[in-house]
Write a structure and sequence with these properties.
11 helices; 4-stranded antiparallel sheet; alpha+beta; 4 strands; Outer membrane efflux proteins (OEP); elongated
Length: 487
């Protein structure tokens, strides 16, 4: 078939031969059919708020999530008591900040596809009209030109590697966020448990102070003590009552903080029983254990690995800028129908690096690599300082707890001896009452030291980022409304 068949003199429909016209039309329809269409996903504040309010520890999606990550069925369900590790998985399931971190990782992964995309060719259609043509010859001389870009020096590969490393850094930052959530959860859970125990101790102390005041008031009436002693006891009772009232106020506040860390409404924690995190204190680590753990952390902590991935990304970015010294080339096949004649052409073009060889972007990339190296060093220095500080704090807290345990033991022995003497008629009830108050005060001090020891142990674990198998659960935790299992 002749390429000029179907040309109509003087008409726009004759610009392109019929076969070419059909091919262009089919290609256009194919392109349109493969396009992604926009779908609106509006957010309703009312619906979103209702979904947050409806969250609970009895949710079936949470049940499946726990089963998937524990490798066993949590029985009985709902759980009668929640320990720290179980609550950590709850936070991974519900905590909004982790959802934000996972979404940022999704964005980084999507950029890999963008970096790997091949450039589309361009199509240029140029109508031409010759006013000097006469007779039966068509005055139109349209042309169709294509332009295909061919990149050299593996530039596309470098872009893909940069985005892969950036996505890996984003994944590691999800893990770093998870460690942060885990640390906040531990502190919040300890606050809840300690607030309850402190209230109990202070109520006991208030009762003992009340008994002491009653003894002194009876002795004051008998003229055995001065009013100054009674006033001092009355003031001590008032302080004890104020402390007990403050501890009682702290309990709902601590539960509120715990609910916030878990990503749950406060009502979801009503009548929920928590395992006591103070029941299993961790002994101080040895110098050898600390050295081994520090060495491992300096090469395996998520923030260290994220900084390393970002440094490697700047390395590849420098390679890309060096590769851009070498020009890409364009191939442009074209066709023109010129006054009844079919003309074909192929154009080759490339940028001539005469006035610059990409020196500026290369220098910028080198500077960014130095910056990333400095950030990596700063990250490792921060890790070392954090580990050493946490280890020192933990050792001090363990030593203080051990000292207060010995003090409590002595106070218990003293109170027991006084009770024996009182039963034998050889001791004063006032003396025994003071010993009991002193023992309860020791219990309060011991509780604070236990809280400090457990918090210090947790800070040391967070600083070391000891490998924890369930930490992997956060990268695949389902989104709101998505109750699918992890891959």
């Amino acid at each position: 078939m002749s390429l000029n068949r179907g040309i109509k003199t003087g008409g726009l429909s004759g610009l392109i031969p019929a076969a070419a016209h059909a091919a262009v039309l089919a290609a256009g329809l194919g392109i349109l059919a493969g396009c992604t269409h926009y779908q609106s996903q509006p957010i309703s504040p009312d619906s979103a708020g209702a979904a947050l309010t409806a969250r609970s520890l009895q949710d079936e999606g949470l049940h499946r999530f726990l089963t998937q990550n524990l490798g066993r069925e949590p029985v009985p369900w709902p759980l009668p008591k929640w320990d720290f590790e179980m609550l950590t998985l709850v936070a991974f399931y519900y905590q909004p900040s982790l959802e934000v971190a996972r979404s940022q990782w999704d964005v980084a992964r999507s950029a890999i596809k963008t970096a790997g995309a091949r450039p589309n060719p361009t199509l240029t259609v140029t109508p031409g009209y010759d006013t000097s043509v006469s007779g039966g010859t068509s005055p139109w001389f349209p042309s169709i030109d294509f332009d295909f870009l061919f990149e050299t020096s593996r530039k596309r590969d470098h872009r893909v590697v940069i985005e892969q490393l950036t996505a890996e850094a984003a994944r590691l930052e999800v893990l770093a966020s998870a460690w942060q959530v885990r640390s906040e959860l531990r502190r919040a859970l300890i606050e809840v448990v300690v607030a309850g125990r402190r209230h109990d101790v202070l109520r006991q102390q208030t009762g003992l102070q009340q008994e002491l005041l009653s003894i002194l008031e009876r002795r004051l009436a008998a003229g055995a003590v001065s009013s100054l002693e009674v006033s001092a006891a009355r003031l001590a009772l008032a302080k004890s009552e104020a402390s007990a009232a403050d501890a009682q106020r702290q309990e709902p506040l601590a539960r509120g903080r715990l609910a916030e860390v878990l990503g749950l409404p406060l009502a979801a924690l009503d009548r929920v029983v928590f395992d006591d995190p103070l029941a299993r204190p961790r002994p101080a680590v040895t110098v050898e254990e600390l050295a081994d753990a520090r060495r491992e952390s300096l090469r395996s902590r998520s923030d260290v690995l994220a900084a390393l991935a970002r440094y490697e990304a700047t390395q590849t970015a420098l390679q890309l800028e060096v590769a851009r010294q070498y020009p890409d080339f364009h191939v442009g096949p074209g066709y023109q129908y010129d006054l009844g004649e079919n003309k074909w052409s192929v154009a080759l073009s490339l940028e001539l690096p005469l006035f610059n060889r990409n020196a500026g972007p290369i220098a910028e990339a080198e500077a960014r690599r130095r910056e990333a190296a400095a950030r990596f060093t700063a990250t490792q220095a921060h890790v070392i300082a954090e580990i050493d500080g946490a280890a020192a704090a933990h050792a001090a807290a363990v030593g203080q707890r051990a000292h207060l345990l010995r003090v409590r033991e002595e106070l218990q022995k003293q109170a027991a001896r006084l009770q024996i003497r009182l039963d034998a008629g050889d001791a004063d009830r006032l003396e025994l009452q003071n010993a009991k108050i002193e023992l309860v005060a020791g219990e309060s001090a011991l509780l604070e030291s236990e809280e400090g020891a457990v918090l210090a142990a947790g800070q040391l674990q967070d600083a070391l980022q000891v490998p924890w198998t369930n930490l992997a659960a956060i990268v695949g935790a389902p989104r709101d409304g998505d109750q699918s299992h992890l891959p």
